[in-house]
């Protein structure tokens, strides 16, 4: 992996989990949060840009602190404490499922000369999958660590990983494979 042409994108991990099946997704997100944090720390040490792309929760403001405050509750607090963005991380809001739809991500990635995207976050079978599809159509090389995405249902997550691997040519090895 060429670190200088790579970006880590963390999708929807700043989350309130206040929706149908939110409890199930919060349990899965808690499992992957530590993996994402470890991968993020490793990649940061290599100079890889970290980009959070997140739902806006009807606030329509790319104000990280407002979104964190809105999302903080009993279910989300352990995840937020583990995975919270740092000062040098990029933060974008998205209006729909894909990280590309209606965002400045294309321009940011061009500015950073990125060719490879490492996608992590939730939900694997919706926002991560739709984002991976859009990234593939934009000809990015895709890495989606299998132990850094989560969906409400494990079988849905496995199906999404299979689609990303087989159709979108994503490398879905576990995250420690990228820490060499």
Architecture blueprint of SSEs:
Elements: E1 6-11, H1 22-45, E2 50-55, H2 64-71, H3 77-83, E3 90-94, H4 105-111, E4 116-122, H5 124-137, E5 141-143, E6 149-150, H6 154-166
Helix pairs in contact: 1-3, 5-6
| Count of separate DSSP helical elements | 6
According to CATH, what is the topology? Rossmann fold
Order of secondary-structure elements: EHEHHEHEHEEH
Enumerate the spans where pLDDT stays under 50 for 5 or more consecutive residues: none
Strand content: 15-25%
Structural class: alpha/beta
The biggest sheet amounts to: 6 strands, parallel
How many domains in all? 1
Please give the alpha-carbon distance between the first and last residues.
10 Å
Number of strands: 6
Architecture per CATH nomenclature, i.e. the level-2 architecture: 3-Layer(aba) Sandwich
CATH superfamily: Isochorismatase-like
CATH C-level label: Alpha Beta
What does this protein look like?
- The longest helix has 24 residues, at 22-45.
- Helix content is 41%, strand content 16%.
- It is built from six helices and six strands.
- The model has no long low-confidence stretch (mean pLDDT 94).
- By secondary structure, the protein is an alpha/beta fold.
- The chain has a single domain (3-178), classed as 3-Layer(aba) Sandwich (Rossmann fold), CATH 3.40.50.
């Amino acid at each position: 992996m060429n670190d200088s042409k790579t970006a880590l994108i963390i999708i929807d991990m700043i989350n309130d989990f206040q929706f149908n099946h939110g409890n199930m997704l919060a349990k899965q997100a808690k499992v992957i949060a530590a993996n994402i944090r470890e991968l993020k720390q490793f990649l940061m040490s290599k100079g890889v840009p970290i980009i959070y792309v997140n739902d806006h929760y009807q606030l329509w403001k790319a104000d990280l602190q407002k979104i964190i405050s809105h999302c903080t509750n009993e279910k989300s607090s352990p995840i937020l404490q583990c995975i919270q963005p740092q000062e040098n991380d990029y933060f974008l809001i998205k209006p729909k499922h894909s990280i590309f739809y209606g965002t400045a991500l294309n321009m940011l990635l061009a500015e950073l000369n990125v060719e490879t995207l490492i996608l992590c976050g939730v939900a694997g079978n919706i926002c991560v999958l739709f984002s991976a599809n859009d990234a593939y159509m934009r000809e990015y090389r895709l890495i989606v660590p299998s132990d850094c995405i989560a969906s409400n249902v494990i079988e849905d997550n496995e199906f999404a990983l299979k689609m990303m691997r087989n159709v979108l040519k994503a490398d879905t090895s576990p995250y420690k494979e990228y820490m060499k």
